[in-house]
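Hi support team,

I've been running sequence recovery on a batch of backbones for a student project. Most finish fine, but this one hangs at about 90% for roughly twenty minutes before it completes. I'm not sure whether the input is malformed or the queue is just slow. I've pasted the structure tokens below so you can try to reproduce it. Let me know if you need the job ID as well.

Thanks,
M.K.
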């Protein structure tokens, strides 16, 4: 009996770990058809012989633990930059997947509570609870919607176009059902049960047809040339600048050299997140002499730079995207709303700082979060550009990044160097592709130690500065499409799909009873 339990533990962890290979940068999507089907078959057969709720929670937790252990190990790399955090590396490698695995455990716990009987209705219940708890995982506390199984489709953009209608969570619900659908063929009780399996295997082809139509429609849309070109910088500046007191002058000079400004070219320059950690938003003016010989009135600068503000006799620090003119006058700014736990703010800071702990990304205190993500408009003469700012981590959220879709572009700045040469920066960039498709907008990304890119509303990467390299990409021509359904209604569409699944479950149960 003990030996059998050990085999089951290894089996479920292995299934979860194997599923992670379907995610970027590996993209072995086919694996999911085996792992999710095997997982559902295991749960369904166990439900016939063992209805212990705690066991079923454990089954789901093991699968989730394996999945997140193998796909999120790289988070611990960020702890190597501060000696005070190094002792937490082994804890982090185990603790994070252990916590995230709870959501899979809760899904399988609810599965057994529903008292599964028939294969098809059980299949929909399994998909529903797993999809719902993935949504909860991305929403509860600060939310961490990283590595939804939907991201395994990132190399199949025609199919991904459906996210412009149903969003990433809606598509994730479909993916769970799709990957588990072969199990219906294995467990079928009647021949007509196979029909459900066939329907889910056909749906990707229907999504592909819609994506092809959507692509053709986009390609035939009118091309508009902006008066200003947007130049996004991809840099490869070492994170040593945070800890070695590197002179900011050398960093600024390197960024100017990469930017290659031409005084007569109307250009908006975008520099990465937190690129000048030892210089605050208001202090940049002290370095005006570095800019005045290379920049002109034809230029705007979008710079990821920290800011500070006195609130109730306390200095609050913000991770900001600041917009300057060529004389380094501040025209506008955005303070990051969604902060990274331990990276940008220390939970229970008053308690944990007694143990010598601090946030990883600065040496003073936790960042404060901004209050509102506002659309920023840049205007000069007859030129107007409305941008939605997203700083780093904020691009991973689906359906929570804007309420008003009346903007022109998404500007995303990031610092991906905290995760070294791991799969983390590549996974991070994948989220940008999904946000572009969902919103139906171009996404311009500037990154240090990551991937800078121009992603169009179809999710196609039109230009990029590859990981580990420095350079720039220019954006001037834009093709527009109408606001997507998802940009109008957001995750209300996911709620509608949940209700649809519930209707199907009750319908199948009623038909079986009759």
């Amino acid at each position: 009996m003990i030996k059998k339990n050990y085999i089951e533990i290894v089996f479920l962890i292995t299934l979860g770990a194997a599923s992670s290979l379907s995610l970027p940068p590996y993209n072995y999507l086919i694996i999911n058809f085996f792992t999710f089907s095997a997982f559902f078959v295991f749960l369904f057969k166990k439900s016939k012989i063992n209805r212990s709720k705690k066991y079923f929670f454990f089954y789901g937790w093991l699968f989730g633990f394996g999945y997140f252990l193998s796909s999120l190990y790289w988070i611990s790399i960020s702890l190597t930059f501060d000696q005070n955090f190094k002792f937490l590396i082994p804890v982090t490698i185990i603790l994070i997947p252990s916590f995230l695995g709870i959501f899979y455990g809760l899904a399988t716990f609810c599965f057994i509570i529903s008292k599964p009987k028939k294969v098809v209705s059980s299949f929909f219940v399994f998909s529903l609870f797993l999809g719902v708890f993935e949504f909860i995982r991305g929403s509860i506390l600060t939310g961490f919607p990283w590595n939804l199984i939907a991201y395994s489709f990132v190399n199949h953009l025609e199919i991904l176009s459906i996210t412009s209608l149903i969003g990433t969570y809606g598509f994730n619900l479909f993916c769970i059902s799709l990957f588990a659908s072969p199990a219906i063929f294995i467990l079928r009780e009647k021949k007509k049960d196979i029909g459900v399996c066939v329907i889910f295997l056909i749906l990707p082809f229907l999504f592909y047809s819609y994506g092809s139509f959507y692509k053709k429609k986009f390609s035939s849309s009118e091309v508009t040339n902006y008066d200003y070109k947007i130049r996004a910088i991809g840099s490869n500046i070492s994170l040593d600048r945070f800890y070695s007191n590197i002179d900011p002058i050398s960093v600024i000079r390197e960024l100017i050299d990469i930017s290659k400004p031409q005084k007569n070219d109307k250009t908006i320059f975008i520099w990465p997140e937190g690129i000048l950690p030892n210089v605050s938003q208001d202090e940049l003016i002290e370095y005006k002499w570095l800019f005045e010989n290379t920049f002109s009135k034809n230029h705007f600068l979008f710079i990821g730079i920290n800011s500070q503000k006195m609130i109730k006799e306390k200095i609050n620090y913000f991770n900001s995207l600041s917009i300057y003119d060529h004389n380094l006058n501040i025209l506008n700014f955005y303070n990051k709303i969604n902060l990274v736990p331990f990276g940008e703010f220390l939970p229970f800071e008053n308690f944990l700082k007694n143990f010598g702990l601090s946030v990883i990304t600065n040496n003073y205190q936790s960042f404060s979060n901004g209050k509102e993500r506002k659309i920023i408009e840049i205007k000069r003469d007859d030129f107007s550009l409305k941008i939605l700012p997203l700083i780093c981590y904020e691009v991973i959220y689906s359906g929570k990044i804007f309420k008003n879709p009346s903007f022109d572009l998404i500007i995303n700045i990031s610092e991906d160097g905290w995760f070294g040469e791991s799969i983390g920066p590549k996974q991070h960039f994948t989220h940008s592709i999904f946000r572009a498709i969902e919103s139906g907008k171009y996404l311009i990304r500037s990154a240090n130690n990551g991937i800078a890119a121009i992603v169009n509303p179809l999710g196609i990467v039109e230009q990029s500065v590859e990981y580990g390299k420095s350079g720039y990409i220019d954006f001037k021509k834009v093709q527009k499409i109408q606001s997507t359904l998802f940009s109008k209604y957001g995750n209300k569409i996911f709620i509608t799909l949940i209700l649809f699944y519930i209707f199907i479950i009750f319908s199948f149960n009623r038909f079986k009873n009759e």
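--
Follow-up from support: It reproduced on our side and the slowdown came from queue contention, not your input. The two ends are 40 Å apart (CA to CA). No action needed from you.
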